[in-house]
Amino acid sequence: MCGGVGSRFWPFSRNDRPKQFLDFFGTGKSLLQLTVERISSVVRPENIILVTNRQYAEIIKEQLPEIKESNILLEPARRNTAPCICWAAHHIHALDPEASIVTLPSDHLVLKEKEFEKAIREGLEFVENGNRLLTLGINPTGPNTGYGYIQQGTAVESYPGIRKVKSFTEKPDLEMANVFIASGEFFWNSGIFLWSADSILKAFDKYDPETAHLFSSAEPNTFGTPEEPAFIDNIFPNAPSISIDYAIMEKADNVFVKTVDLGWSDLGTWNALYEASPRNHEGNVTQNCKVLTSECTGSMFAVSGDKIIVAAGLKDYIVADNGNALLIYPIADEQKIRQIVNEVKTRFGEEYV
Amino acid sequence: MCGGVGSRFWPFSRNDRPKQFLDFFGTGKSLLQLTVERISSVVRPENIILVTNRQYAEIIKEQLPEIKESNILLEPARRNTAPCICWAAHHIHALDPEASIVTLPSDHLVLKEKEFEKAIREGLEFVENGNRLLTLGINPTGPNTGYGYIQQGTAVESYPGIRKVKSFTEKPDLEMANVFIASGEFFWNSGIFLWSADSILKAFDKYDPETAHLFSSAEPNTFGTPEEPAFIDNIFPNAPSISIDYAIMEKADNVFVKTVDLGWSDLGTWNALYEASPRNHEGNVTQNCKVLTSECTGSMFAVSGDKIIVAAGLKDYIVADNGNALLIYPIADEQKIRQIVNEVKTRFGEEYV
Fold first, then answer.
1. Each residue's pLDDT tens digit, B153-180
2. Mean pLDDT, range A234-239, rounded to an integer
3. Chain A positions in Cβ-Cβ contact with residue B311 (cut-off 8 Å)
4. Where are the alpha helices (DSSP H) in chain A?
5. B84 pLDDT more than 70
6. Is the Cβ–Cβ distance between B32 and B20 less than 8 Å?
7. pLDDT score of A334
């Protein structure tokens, strides 16, 4: 899944180049490229299907020339993850009714690649042996209020590390998050899902019939054929905008969680990126740019291109300079960035967001 | 005079485009262009002589296409103001031995153009009637330690507002500056001088014979002829690097001051520019750029090109973004900027300064 538009990393993420296409760590690879590389140890390139918004077709071809064009599914409208996943499941099911699917966000950080590969292999084995929906749960490192939480239930025999899910919870407040952590029963929802094409399509039929019916209205021999894009253009805009969590995972009774330690972050905010990045002795993240600081601490400096930043006296700030916009903002106020981006758009125009 | 290199406005001023060539106020005109416009009400364009460093020849032609090339004197080396003024005086004297000269820095701010014109006309009348060196003295608005001070002496009969100079003082410390202000006898040295070509050349002979002899070593018919540039290239590098204040004004006994209220600033520092600029209700200077601030006060935002700045929580900061460098610095520490520029050059290279 690489069709999302994220405004929280503005001015780095832009409408025409959201987070998944950015090289945040100066490795020379975007988060999307890193995601494709990571899953390539388990899934052959010809079996990697990308679902994205039509507007990103070019940038994807540029970043992933090894993915053939017919593997890139172009959504004509933004409809959150459920319609995206339902389409991909139909497409894959048409190519191979026995297929299993690993559903991956393309804009997350995973530091432990071997753990990841192991978890995916074990997870696939689990979902190939029954009508089961599996999610990877992350061992929480603190009461983060930016993540959804999964409460684990009873263990599954002969699959160590996999348990039945008792409940899914949207982002909690801090008090609730503390209770979750203290209980030891809750894990972060990574948004990484495993299932067979057949299982997830059955789940759509049962828990999200609106979306299911829309895609099932296709004539035979539509998915995986040249008829597919025209059909999608026709029906996709009518799909409800709904997340897979809300449409399926919170409702289904065949949901399981595999708890993993992946060195994972959803990189959902500047602060998450800061936490995931190496810091210097003053607690500043200055990776990937030339910075001269004096009495700056706990701050994050990000700049595009060959540019230097000279700064003094900043405590816990984000300094992000990219193209025609510069952000100098307290990290603690980062949740205001979405709203700021809207204000920037209104006051100064589309070209700045 | 437009050959200076100022690092204090980095990253706006650069080695290849110092302060006088910058449009600080978003008027569409550089400080040099504004200076030439200002004096054009008194001096015809064909009588405006520019002295600059050779490296700025192109930028001057670009900014002042109306000035003919033979009026642009190109110094082959940096030698402060005394050699610059001595050369110009010889050049002008050769063209017209009766000429009077208004010597102007090209990187200052003058808000009251009519007062300026009046002061120049009255000053010229004064220096045309005797062997007199006249400087314009600015009524100080506070104990600024960034300016030189002029102590006035006895009044000159029939020239109201003009007095003999009792002393010139280099930049004082704050205690001394307070004493100066309290006395009511001291004025800021504007660096604007008026004299006849003959008077200033006489003064060089008497008070700075080293410089005087160097330029007097020319064969007859050198200045104002095609021989001049080759002669200058030959001798100029041997000139002492010395300011006109130190070489002449502090020593001569025929120095007078005309006190004026010009709405003047030498724009010597970011803070001086801040003080000279209109502020919004939060005390921020955001002229000439698109800025969205929240809880920022007393700060100065300067950005080149069509770029926006979003900032929060900055108190008394300079944010200056230009080309390949971004400065975020407390205004109170602006005296460190010179040193920073050196550090930037050492650590990151010439291309950033």
1. 999 999 999 999 999 988 899 999 999 9
2. 97
3. 326-329
4. 31-39, 57-63, 81-95, 113-127, 174-183, 197-207, 209-216, 228-235, 244, 270-276, 337-348
5. yes
6. yes
7. 84
Neighbours of B206 (CB within 10 A): 14
A26 vs B266 pLDDT, higher one: B266
Backbone φ and ψ for B312, nearest 5 degrees, come out as: -140, 145
State which residue of chain B sits closest to A309, comparing Cα positions: B326
CA dist., res. A164 & res. A170, Å (int): 18
Angle of helix B209-216 versus helix B197-207 axis, rounded to 10: 120
- Asked whether the predicted pLDDT for residue A192 surpasses 70, the reply is yes
Partner-chain residue, chosen from A305, A312, A325, that has the shortest CB–CB distance to B307? A325
Asked whether the beta carbons of residue A292 and residue B340 sit closer than 8 angstroms, the reply is: yes
B303 chain-A contacts, CB cut-off 8 A: 326
Check B308 against A352: CB less than 8 A apart: yes
Q: Which helix (H) or strand (E) covers residue B330, if one does?
A: strand B325-330
Q: What is the DSSP letter of A315?
A: B
Query: A1-41, pLDDT tens digit by residue?
Result: 999 887 788 998 898 899 999 988 778 899 999 999 999 99
The SS3 call for residue B237 is helix
Residue of chain B nearest A337, judged by CA positions: B310
How far apart are the C-alpha atoms of A324 and A353, rounded to whole Å? Answer: 9
pTM: 0.81
Report whether A49 contacts A92 (CB < 8 A). yes
Q: What's the Rg (C-alpha) of chain B? A: 21
Interface contact flag, A310 B340, Cβ < 8 Å: yes
Q: What is the DSSP string of A166-199?
A: EEEEPSP-HHHHHHHHHHT-EEEEEEEEEEEHHH
Q: CB atoms < 10 A from the CB of A141, how many?
A: 12
The C-alpha angle with vertex A6 and arms to A29 and A329, in degrees rounded to 5, equals 95
Region A300-326 average pLDDT = 93
Please say whether the beta carbons of B149 and B110 come within 8 A: no
- Mean pLDDT check: name the lowest of A170-174, B148-152, B288-292: B288-292
**Pick from A314, A326, A348: CB nearest B326:** A326
Pair of tokens at residue A34: 């890193």
Helix crossing, A209-216 with A81-95: angle to 10°?
A: 40
3-state secondary structure at position A38: helix
Closest CA to A329 of A291, A302, A293: A302
Nearest CA in chain A to B323: A307
User: Is B332 in the A-facing interface, judged by CB distances under 8 Å?
Assistant: no
Strands A308-312 and A290-294: parallel
Q: Residue A223 pLDDT > 70, yes or no?
A: yes
- Average pLDDT of B35-41? 96
- A347 CB neighbours in chain B (<8 A) are 290, 292
What's chain A's Rg over C-alpha atoms? 21
Residue B243 has pLDDT above 70, yes or no: yes
H or E element that contains B180: helix B174-183
**What ipTM, to 2 d.p.?**
0.80
User: Which is more confident, A289 or B29?
Assistant: B29
A332 touches chain B (CB under 8 A): no
Q: Which chain A residue is nearest to residue B324, measuring alpha carbons?
A: A307
In the predicted structure, residue A287 carries a pLDDT above the cut 70: no
Strand, coil or helix: B353: coil
Rounded average pLDDT over B282-308:
90
Does the beta carbon of B349 lie under 8 angstroms from any beta carbon of chain A?
Answer: no
Share of chain A above pLDDT 90, in %: 82
Candidates B7, B295, B326, B351: best to mutate against A (most CBs of A within 10 A) is: B326
